[in-house]
Amino acid sequence: AQSVTQLGSHVSVSEGALVLLRCNYSSSVPPYLFWYVQYPNQGLQLLLKYTSAATLVKGINGFEAEFKKSETSFHLTKPSAHMSDAAEYFCAVSDGDKLSFGAGTTVTVRA
Amino acid sequence: EPEVTQTPSHQVTQMGQEVILRCVPISNHLYFYWYRQILGQKVEFLVSFYNNEISEKSEIFDDQFSVERPDGSNFTLKIRSTKLEDSAMYFCASRMTDNSNQPQHFGDGTRLSIL
Least C-beta-crowded within 10 Å: which of A15, A22, B6, B50? Predict the structure, then answer.
């Protein structure tokens, strides 16, 4: 079975600072990886996906993630945090027909 | 942009009662899913559904749970006799194909509270 682990349940950054959210995967086959964001009282919105076409993936709202096979990682970054980035972020991996999610990382942005 | 819609947004039910959660997947999608998220825990897979049949289900999805596509647009999750531990946020998702590289599109969820 495929799985992901998110390091850090909570990240606090200053507005304008780098956002770095960590995700490591465990997969016996080349993985398909996703980052989703959940704003308060909303559903899961796709930020970006890795499907082996390129190791650096750009998503919505200025986020990007880099797939590193040697480190089994798919960390999410944004160069400059905005107040509107406050949300919970989930890394997920395709596990057959379903998605297997990480525990999530809550991001707070300080003014 | 097409969306997955879920109703109601919040459901409060007495323990032991039946509850039906409703979802309208994106119209040209063929593969449908239910997930749940107990407060403070991971999003967990419950069931996948295609061509009017369950494709896969987790160990959480026991005999108390059932899914149905009663017409061409709705996809429902029924819990026959609710328990306190069924309290969670339930998410419906859909996608066009079963290719693992295709993302699933999620609704806003139904928060189920069992009293």
Answer: A15
Residue A45 is predicted with a pLDDT of 93
Burial A61-100 (b: 16+ CB within 10 A, else e): eebbbebeeeeebbbbebeebeeebbbbbbbbbbbebbbb
Tens of pLDDT, residue by residue over A37-89, are 999 888 899 999 998 778 899 999 999 999 999 999 999 999 999 999 999 99
Strand partners, A56: A66
A43/B4 CB distance under 8 A: yes
- Residues A66, A81: contact at Cβ < 8 Å? no
DSSP B7-59: E-SEEEE-TT--EEEEEE--TT--EEEEEEE-TTS-EEEEEEEETTEEEEE-T
Q: Tell me which residue has tokens 């959940």.
A: A38
Task: Please tell me if residue B35 touches chain A, with a CB cutoff of 8 Å.
Answer: yes
